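re: that chain from earlier
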Amino acid sequence: MTEKIVDIREINEKIARESAFIDLLKMEMRKVIVGQDRLSERLLIALLANGHILLEGVPGLAKTLAINTLAKAIHAKFSRIQFTPDLLPADLLGTMIYSQKNEEFLIKKGPIFSNFVLADEINRAPAKVQSALLEVMQERQVTIGDSTYPMEEPFLVLATQNPIEQEGTYPLPEAQVDRFMMKVVIDYPKREEEKKIIRQNILKEKPQVNAVVSIQDILNARNLVTEVYVDEKIENYIVDLVFATRTPAASGLASLANYIDFGVSPRAGISMAIAARAYAFINHRGYVIPEDVREVCHDVFRHRIGLSYEAEAEKVTAEHIITEILNKVEVP
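^ sequence. v structure.
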């Protein structure tokens, strides 16, 4: 037992020292992004946890700006793909083009070959394109013709959905949505933040983002995140939260049973543990506490809970269900 305590202390000191660059990265992002600290923090969690984000918010909330700024701050490649109903998988992944000069087929890589990919309005593209993107996200490789190309690390996809317009959209199937580590919902900025945004955008000279961290620093940090200590009590807490969505009555939440068609998948528990580790790292800690789990729970669960018709009729949301579960399940 004493050895374990010593190890945790060592890990904690190591991570407190090695995670110092996170503050530098946050400061650089705040130069340009006003009032979206939660979005910036979630991007960092996904980056360190090697996951992807599904983002829901109305247009103009700095979604493109946030991921572009992060890419600049770590000197990485960024591409934005506007999803439309006529988009083809080849427009995303790339294709083979015949060269008359060389008399052979050449590979032309698509915009997916970047470190950071913004898939704007993913639900506007047909299922075939959505599947192509989600396959790359899962396998982290692209096959064009007979050749397979691994994606450069880090590889982060930020897919956006507009919650207002649903005309001409193709909703993502549950099995595909499950591939996203987190679904983040962002809202309008506060009054003072709005004023600061306007002021910043009418300046003659706009703030410039500098590369303050290298890609290698991020890859090293990912290895350190795997060293963050997760106690068995925390593992049990995560499992309790997962099972509360599947068998609510057994967890003392019988009132929610009629609102849930299906609970979260095993991927949810894995994502929760990894995201909680990354959140602890961002906060310069070498061990996970229950508050880390609670902090990421809504983002990890909200797109994985299947709501029943009764829930929709009574306007019971996934947010409400997750909050009830967090209030009821005993914290270690």
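The mean pLDDT is 86.
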